[in-house]
Design the sequence.
C-alpha cells in the first residue's frame, strides 16, 4: 500500500520531547499498539508513532476492520517479567501524557455539548506547551496563536519549566550571556543550585574567618582559585526579562533598574533596541557586566549603562533622564548578603531595610514618565524566627505609596532544582512548603484607562530576533 497520510487536523500536538520518547520506545521496545487510519488513508490515531516508525524504516502491516471487533496485538517476544515489556508499559502511557491537545482545533470542531459529553475540560490542558516545531502541525494562525502574538501567553502563571520557555531561554543564553561573577538569589545565581565545591569554599571561608562569608568573598575566592561557580541555568531569566520589556515597555523605551546585579537585563534590553540604565553597589559586578557585553558585542558603541553607586542616589545620578519602564529585582531583605558594604540593603535588618528600600522605590518612581509601567520581581522571605517578613506586600505598599497603581500580579514558576531533596526534611520539621515561585508585580504610573492610547497592540508573529544567529 502507499504511504499513510497525516491528519491535517490532528487534535494531538507532539512536542519534541514526546517525539523523542516515541522514538525511544520503538527503538528500545519494538512497536507496541496499532495505529488507526480511515479508508482514505488519513491517520485517525497514531500520527506521532507513524512519523517516527517511518523515520526508523519499520514496515507496516495493515489489518482491515469495520469496527466490530477489537484488534489485539500479541507480542510473542515479550514475557510478563521482561524488562522491555515493563519499559513498553511505561512508554505506552507516558508518551500519551507528554503530548498535548490542540485545544483550538477541538473547540472549532465540536460543540460545547459534544465536549461536555466527552467530559472534555480545557482546564486540564497545558496551553503554553504548544510546540511550533511540529512537522505535522495544523494551520498557522490557529494553533499557538497567543504564543505567536505574545511569545508566551500573557496569563498570570508564567511557567518557566515549560518547553517553549526553556527553548527560548537556551536561545538567549547561546548569545553568550555569562554568569561567572556576581551573586545569588533564588531567581538568579541560585545558590541552592551551586555545585558542591561552592559549599566547600563557603565552609572553608567560614572556618577561616569565624563567620559566614559574603557572596563577594566567595566570588573573590573562586575567581582567585579558578573555581567555576555556576552553570548557565541559574542566571536571571532572560525570557522573563524579554517578556517584561516587550509587554510593558514602549518600543525603544528607556529602562531604569535600581538593583541591577548581573548583565542579563542590560543585554536583553540592548538586543531589543532599548536603552538600559542599571545601578549596583558592587564594582566587580559592574565590571563583569561590561566585560560580558564587550565579549558578546566587541566594539559596539551603544550599550547598556551600568553605574556603581548606592541607588539611594538615583535622582542625582540620573537627574537628566526620564524613564519608560522601571524593572528590577531587589535584594529580598537579607536572604542573600551581596557584600559587606553597609549601604547594601542585604546587610540591613528588616527595620532598617524597609524604609531604605521604600525611599529607593519612591525616588526611582519619581524618575518614571507618566503613563508607564514598573515591574518588580520579588519573593517572600522569612525572618530569623522563620515567619515571613511580608516582603511582597511591603513592595506593593511601597509602589502604591510612591503613587503607582498595583495593576498585575504574575506568578513565575521556577525550577524545583535541589528543592525536591530538601523539601521532605524541611516540611516534616517545620511545615514550611517548598517555594517554587516568585512574584512578578506590575504597577502603573498614570491613568490606566489611557493604556490603550499609550501602548501599541502587540503581535510578534513575524518577529524573530534569533533568526540570524
Ligand atoms: C537581588 S540582587 C539583584 C540581582 C538582580 N536581580 C539580578 O538578577 O541580577 C540585588 C542587587 O542589589 C544590589 N544592592 C543592594 N543594595 C544596594 C544599594 N543600596 N544600591 C545599589 N545596589 C544595591 C546588590 O549588590 C545586588 O546585586
Sequence:
Amino acid at each position: 500500500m502507499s504511504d499513510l497520510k497525516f491528519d491535517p487536523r490532528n487534535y494531538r500536538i507532539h512536542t519534541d520531547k514526546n517525539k523523542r520518547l516515541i522514538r525511544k520506545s520503538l527503538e528500545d521496545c519494538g512497536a507496541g499498539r496499532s495505529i488507526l487510519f480511515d479508508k482514505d488513508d488519513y491517520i485517525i490515531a497514531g500520527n506521532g508513532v507513524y512519523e517516527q516508525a517511518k523515520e526508523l524504516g519499520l514496515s507496516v502491516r495493515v489489518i482491515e476492520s469495520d469496527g466490530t471487533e477489537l484488534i489485539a496485538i500479541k507480542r510473542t517476544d515479550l514475557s510478563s517479567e521482561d524488562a522491555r515489556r515493563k519499559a513498553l508499559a511505561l512508554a505506552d502511557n507516558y508518551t500519551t501524557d507528554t503530548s498535548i491537545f490542540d485545544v483550538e482545533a477541538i473547540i472549532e470542531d465540536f460543540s460545547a455539548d459534544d465536549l461536555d459529553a466527552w467530559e472534555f475540560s480545557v482546564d486540564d490542558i497545558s496551553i503554553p506547551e504548544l510546540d511550533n516545531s511540529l512537522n505535522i502541525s495544523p494551520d498557522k494562525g490557529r494553533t499557538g496563536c497567543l504564543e505567536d502574538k505574545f511569545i508566551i501567553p500573557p496569563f498570570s502563571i508564567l511557567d518557566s519549566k515549560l518547553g517553549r520557555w526553556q527553548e527560548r531561554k537556551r536561545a538567549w543564553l547561546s548569545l553568550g550571556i555569562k554568569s561567572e561573577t556576581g551573586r545569588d538569589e533564588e531567581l538568579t545565581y541560585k545558590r541552592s543550585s551551586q555545585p558542591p565545591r561552592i559549599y566547600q569554599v563557603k565552609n572553608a571561608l567560614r572556618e577561616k574567618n569565624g563567620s559566614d562569608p559574603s557572596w563577594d568573598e566567595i566570588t573573590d575566592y573562586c575567581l582567585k582559585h579558578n573555581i567555576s561557580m555556576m552553570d548557565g541555568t541559574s542566571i536571571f531569566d532572560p525570557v522573563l526579562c524579554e517578556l517584561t520589556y516587550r509587554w510593558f515597555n514602549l518600543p525603544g523605551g528607556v529602562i531604569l533598574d535600581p538593583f541591577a546585579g548581573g548583565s542579563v537585563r542590560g543585554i536583553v534590553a540592548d538586543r531589543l533596541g532599548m536603552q538600559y540604565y542599571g545601578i549596583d553597589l558592587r564594582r566587580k559586578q559592574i565590571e563583569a557586566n561590561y566585560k560580558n557585553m564587550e565579549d558578546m558585542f566587541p566594539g559596539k558603541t551603544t550599550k547598556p549603562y551600568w553605574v556603581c553607586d548606592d541607588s539611594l542616589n538615583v535622582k542625582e545620578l540620573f537627574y537628566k533622564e526620564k524613564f519608560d519602564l522601571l524593572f528590577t529585582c531587589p535584594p529580598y531583605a537579607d536572604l542573600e548578603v551581596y557584600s559587606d558594604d553597609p549601604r547594601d540593603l542585604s546587610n540591613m535588618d528588616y527595620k532598617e531595610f524597609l524604609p531604605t528600600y521604600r525611599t529607593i522605590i519612591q525616588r526611582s518612581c519619581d524618575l518614571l514618565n507618566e503613563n508607564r509601567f514598573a515591574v518588580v520581581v520579588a519573593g517572600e522571605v522569612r525572618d530569623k524566627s522563620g515567619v515571613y517578613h511580608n516582603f511582597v506586600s511591603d513592595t506593593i505598599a511601597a509602589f502604591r505609596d510612591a503613587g503607582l497603581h498595583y495593576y498585575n500580579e504574575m506568578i513565575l514558576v521556577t525550577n524545583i532544582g535541589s528543592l525536591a531533596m530538601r523539601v521532605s526534611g524541611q516540611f516534616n520539621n517545620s511545615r514550611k512548603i517548598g517555594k517554587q515561585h516568585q512574584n512578578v508585580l506590575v504597577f502603573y504610573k498614570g491613568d490606566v484607562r489611557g493604556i490603550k492610547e499609550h501602548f501599541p497592540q502587540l503581535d510578534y508573529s513575524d518577529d524573530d530576533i534569533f533568526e540570524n544567529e
About this structure: Residues 194 and 249 are 33 Å apart (CA to CA).
